[in-house]
Design a protein that fits this description.
With 242 residues, the chain is of the alpha/beta class. The chain has helices spanning 51-62, 108-119, 134-145, 163-178, 217-227, 229-241, and strands spanning 8-11, 33-35, 40-44, 88-91, 99-104, 150-155, 182-186, 199-202, 209-210. A 6-stranded mixed β-sheet has the order 5-6-7-3-8-9, with helices on both faces. Strands 2-1-4 form a 3-stranded antiparallel β-sheet, covered by helices on one side.
């Protein structure tokens, strides 16, 4: 047993229909299990490579609402999650998480609305997320819900955050990790991917596999742009005009 709350996501492909689109996702099709070895794991890769699909299945298999929130949240504005969760079993470590949250960029507005509703209940601390900017409300929700000894699944959190706010999120992640929490995060952000000691799992070029920070497209393209912005844009524009 490990000290992580989730150490493996095990997929039984016999429970997935032969014509299901999940079998066409190269990164996960036929993969029997994905192992987590670190308190912070990032899923990286191109759009449509299966990162969010796998994260969502892990979240639902763990007991989270598909649209996000804590395990106590129960609402649905649009039922769009895949059947992968039905074929998934999670291997858990020795400890039991004291808190948890599934936070995804695409349904953040809906979760923020529910957060406000729940906070107005008996004994609640009324929150006003919709009176804040997107980035401010996102970080306020993190600070309000992320604690020690928790499981936190984040889907493209950078969508709401400026570079400075991404650094602030990194500090919140570090605070929670030092308190024994575990994070699994889908991101394209070279800032977030730089979290010290994190494991990066790549969803490009075949089945999901570990990758070094400096090998990710997020790092390579950002580095190329910063070091030779004019040259890169000139080449792109010239190719587009041909």
């Amino acid at each position: 047993m490990t000290s992580l709350f989730i150490d493996k996501a095990i997929i039984d492909w016999d429970k997935v229909e032969k014509d299901n689109y999940l079998r066409g996702i190269d990164a996960i099709s036929g993969v029997g299990e994905v192992t987590f070895r670190n308190p912070v794991t990032f899923f990286v890769g191109e759009n449509g490579s299966g990162k969010s699909t796998l994260l969502e299945a892990i979240a639902v298999a763990y007991g989270f609402n598909p649209e996000g929130g804590t395990k106590n949240y129960s609402f649905s504005t649009y039922d769009s999650h895949s059947e992968l969760c039905d074929a998934m079993r999670l291997s858990k470590g020795a400890g039991r998480a004291k808190s948890g949250y599934f936070l995804r960029a695409e349904s953040f507005y809906n979760v923020a609305t529910k957060e406000e509703e729940y906070s107005r209940g008996p004994g609640g601390n009324p929150m006003h997320f919709h009176k804040m900017s997107h980035g401010e409300s996102f970080l306020a929700m993190v600070k309000n819900n992320f604690r020690s000894e928790g499981v936190y699944l984040l889907d493209e959190p950078e969508a709401a955050l400026s570079p400075q706010r991404q650094l602030a999120l990194l500090m919140e992640i570090d605070r929670c990790v030092k308190g024994g929490s575990q994070f699994i995060i889908v991101t394209h952000s070279p800032i977030l991917l730089g979290f010290p000691g994190a494991e990066l799992l790549d969803f490009d070029d075949g089945p999901v596999h570990p990758i070094e920070y400096e090998e990710t497209d997020s790092y390579l393209i950002t580095s190329l742009f910063i070091n030779d912005r004019e040259g890169l844009l000139r080449r792109l524009i010239e190719e587009e005009s041909k």
